[in-house]
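Usage

Read records sequentially. Each one opens with the input sequence:
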Amino acid sequence: MEDGKYLNAAQREFLVPKAYNAALRAGAAILDVYEKQGIKNGHAQNKMKGEAFKTTLATAYPDSRLVVTKETMTVEGMIKIVYELLKDKLNIAKITFTSGVNAGSAEFDTKNNIERCPLCGISLNEKGVCPKCGYRK
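and closes with the structure output:
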């Protein structure tokens, strides 16, 4: 087995198709439940739908109220997915997610030169003060 890989070629050849088929069956079962409960296209009181999108890490199916991800839904996985989705729309310097006692944070290179607070990542005002925590440059 190569260093850093969990499965050898024979194991991957055996397991991957079975895992893929199991995931398809699970997804079909979820959609079947949505259909039977009458919520596949939204509840009568909630007709709002999110935007359909497809990235390398996630695909959204708004009609089915599903997002299929290639990342584990940990705080780190959420950071990767959100950054991939919004990196071309926003000038993201830092993303932080918390979930219960779990927390994850990541900083990114920005497209412009904005002075930011080293404590919380918020842009400093014209006097070099952070409006969130009061840090002074």
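Summary fields computed downstream for this record:
- The beta strands are 58-61, 66-69, 94-99, 102-107.
- Residues 9-37 form the longest helix (29 residues).
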